Amino acid sequence: MQTMTAVAKNLSETTVTAVAGLAPLAGALRRPRDYYQGRRRGGRELPDNILLFFRREAKTLLGGAGPVRHFHHRYVLVVPLRGRGRIVVDGRVFSLEPGRCALIAPYQFHHFTRFDAERIGWLFITFEEAAPGVSGTILRPSADGFWADLRRLLEDYLRGDGGGEKGDALACRLALLLGDLSRARAVRAESRKRASGGEDLLFRVHGMVAGSMRRMLPIAEMARGLGLSASHLRTKFRAGSGRSLGVFQREVRLQKAAELFVQGKATVAEVAEACGWESPFAFSRAFRRYWGRSPKRFALFAQGR
């Protein structure tokens, strides 16, 4: 009794209360059937190379003449805190606003569009490793725990450079956040009827390219399918997207090629054929020019080898 009293004198009142509150929880634990078998983490790696940054202006996400197409070899978690905009992911459009967030997988084709105001406040969290296992791309976290864990992640990030033990703690904090996100409700894509003229044309062209991935589509064929003249299609598409049709089609195909290499189930020749190139040499040259690596080096890098 004297020992316990002495210990209590060396502890703050808050600590004594906290310790006492743990006893009922610990008392509820059951006796293990096997003292060598516990709960495993499922073999998932922790997030690594974590970077946080904040966007205050919509133009930094939109670019100049048209929307900026983003391709990342990292996971990107977008959390709007102020302001509303839209994100297009693989040809589907979603509204992004406070209370929602977007989780973009590596090499996933996406861009931002139609912000309500120039001034925004969007948090970006990018990282490598650790596939989050989230079922949807756009999510609405319902549990307060997500926002509490997000605050702690920000506080931890601001307190240090993230290296060494601090990096380990940050990775664990982000893993908790992603666990919260895995239980969030997925948001449905918006109807394309709400798209503007330029967006609608982009979606339709993207659908045509994605549906005929094994061959390059002539502009004249696209124009007939869209009920436009070839010259009108070229002009309207460039005005709405800031890209020529040829550049856009190559981007979609090269992004698809990157996805196939990440999966690691196809050779260079097979990927070239699947993405519309008749010659593996021409494909390799276009791939290197776009991604900065040869297809073989890219595949090794993407698979962490």
List the helices and strands and how they pair.
Elements: H1 2-9, H2 13-27, E1 48-57, H3 59-62, E2 75-82, E3 85-89, E4 92-96, E5 101-104, E6 110-113, E7 119-128, E8 138-140, H4 144-159, H5 164-181, E9 185-186, H6 197-211, H7 219-226, H8 230-241, H9 245-263, H10 268-274, H11 280-291, H12 295-302
Antiparallel strand pairs: 1-7, 2-5, 2-7, 3-4, 3-6, 5-8, 8-9
Helix pairs in contact: 4-5, 6-8, 7-8
What does this structure look like?
- It is a single chain.
- This protein is of the alpha+beta class and 305 residues long.
- It folds into 2 domains: 139 residues, Jelly Rolls; 108 residues, Homeodomain-like (Arc Repressor Mutant, subunit A).
- It is built from 12 helices and 9 strands.
- The chain has a 6-stranded antiparallel beta sheet. Strands 4-3-6 form a 3-stranded antiparallel beta sheet, with no helix packed on it.
- A hairpin with a 2-residue loop joins strand 3 and strand 4.
- The longest helix is centred in the C-terminal third of the chain and has 19 residues.
- The protein starts with a helix and ends with a helix.
